């Protein structure tokens, strides 16, 4: 979750930040009320308690259970509410967008070469799954690129209608050699599209990969300098991080060495993305 917060520029850094909803006459949110019932919940309000719970009071032994449930706020009670007006709902949604500081799209590059089999594969797939879920929750576009000798791509901005395809994407077994170059070229192509111009790029790999050709490194540097795109790495390995590719703005290591604590060092997650 912290990596998802760091990557993807927020709307304040965007050249065209989202506009607030049209001005409308202020309508305060309604006070909690009892105009509608949406179901049952747990609580201790006797006035709202379901009849079957109150029936326990008719028996001396069962009454003890009633008072125990009442003390623990575990009585079944009606769940009342008063729906908000559409205007206040829209205003609340916009306020929530501002509060979470809407972050930009993600381009995720996943290494599916043979060297990633085993624990690196499990960690990398779990990482992609978590990032995609967060992106979907926050309404952020997400483009996946997997690579070995060839690349596979998937735009899952609309996860709800692409869930099956996404799960099939994650089921793909890791095999073959490693060539990161085509995946980076695909990322640069996607970054030129309207929906991904404000995206950042994350590469998940053990980085047992050949060096990147100098012309491609120059294109990546141009993208970083002209568009402000950030390229990040998440190394899944027993080896310390070594950015011999010389293309990343920052990176992290998910350590899977059996003699060291597994995971990403929390100290490396504290820097700001700004």
The value of Rg in angstroms is 25 Å
Counted beta strands: 9
| Unreliable spans | 14-26, 86-91, 93-101
Largest sheet: 7 strands, mixed
Structural class: alpha/beta
Determine the number of helices (DSSP H or I, runs of at least 4 residues): 8
Q: Please give the order of strands in the largest beta sheet.
A: 5-4-3-6-7-8-9
Rough shape?
elongated
**For the terminal residues, how far apart are their CA atoms?**
17 Å
Q: Percent helix among the residues?
A: 25-40%
Order of helices and strands, N to C? HEHHEHEHEEHHEHEEE
Strand content: 15-25%
* Averaged pLDDT: 79
Structure description:
The protein is of the alpha/beta class and 274 residues long. Helix content is 32%, strand content 19%. It is built from 8 helices and 9 strands. It has helices at 2-6, 51-54, 60-71, 86-99, 119-137, 163-171, 181-191, 214-227; strands spanning 36-43, 75-81, 106-111, 142-147, 151-155, 200-205, 231-237, 250-255, 263-264. Strands 5-4-3-6-7-8-9 form a 7-stranded mixed sheet, sandwiched between helices. Strand 8 (250-255) and strand 9 form a beta hairpin. Helix 7 (181-191) runs parallel beside helix 8 (214-227). The longest helix has 19 residues, at 119-137.
Question: Which key features would you list for this structure?
Answer:
single chain; 274 residues; alpha/beta; seven-stranded mixed sheet; 8 helices; 19% strand; elongated
């Amino acid at each position: 979750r912290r990596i998802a917060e760091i990557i993807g520029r927020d709307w304040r850094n965007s050249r065209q930040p989202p506009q607030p909803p049209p001005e409308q006459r202020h309508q305060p949110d309604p006070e909690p009320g009892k105009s509608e019932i949406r179901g049952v919940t747990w609580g201790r309000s006797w006035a709202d308690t379901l009849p079957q719970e109150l029936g326990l009071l008719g028996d001396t032994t069962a009454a003890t259970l009633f008072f125990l449930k009442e003390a623990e706020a575990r009585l079944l009670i009606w769940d009342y509410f008063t729906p908000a007006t559409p205007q206040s709902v829209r205003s609340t949604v916009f306020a929530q967008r501002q509060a979470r500081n809407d972050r930009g799209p993600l381009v995720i590059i996943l290494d599916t070469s043979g060297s990633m089999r085993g624990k690196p594969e499990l960690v990398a797939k779990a990482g992609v799954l978590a990032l995609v879920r967060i992106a979907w929750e926050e309404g952020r576009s997400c483009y996946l690129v997997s690579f070995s000798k060839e690349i596979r791509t998937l735009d899952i901005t609309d996860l709800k209608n692409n869930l099956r395809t996404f799960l099939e994407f994650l089921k793909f077994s890791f095999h073959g050699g490693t060539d990161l170059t085509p995946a980076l070229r695909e990322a640069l192509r996607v970054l030129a599209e309207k929906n991904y111009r404000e995206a950042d790029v994350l590469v998940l790999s053990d980085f047992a990969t050949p060096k990147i050709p100098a012309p491609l490194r120059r294109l990546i540097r141009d993208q970083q300098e002209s568009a402000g795109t950030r390229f990040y790495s998440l190394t899944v390995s027993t080896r310390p991080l070594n950015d011999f590719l010389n293309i990343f703005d920052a990176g992290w290591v998910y350590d899977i060495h059996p003699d060291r604590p597994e995971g990403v060092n929390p100290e490396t997650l504290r820097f700001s993305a700004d």
